[in-house]
Amino acid sequence: MKRFGTKYGGFYYPENLDELNHNSIIYCIGAGEDISHDIMIANQLKSKIHIFDPTPRSISHVNHVKNVLDGSKSPIYSNNIAGGDPVHYWKLILENSISSDNIIFKEYAIGINEGVHKFYLPTNSDYVSCSLEEGMKSNDFINVNVRTLKTIMKELNHTHIDLLKMDIEGSECDVINNMLDLHIYPKYLAVEFDLAFNGEYKKDVEKCNQTIQKLHQHNYELIHNHESDFTFQLISNQKTLITDIYSLGYRCNTDDLMKQMNIRNYSSPFSYMVIDYKSVFHYINTKFNKFFDIIHLDNKQKNNQIFELSNNTFYNYNWYNALWYHDLYIHKSCLNNKNIQNITDWNNVCIWNHHNLNEPHIQTTLNRRIQRLYDSLDNRSSSTLLIYINKIENSVNYDINDLLDFTKSKNCNLLFIQPLYNFIDEIKHVYCNNNLNIIHIKSFYECNGTGLDDTRIDWNKIKNKINHLYDFQHIV
Question: Which residues on neighbouring strands pair with residue 331, listed in sequence order?
Answer without folding.
Answer: 294
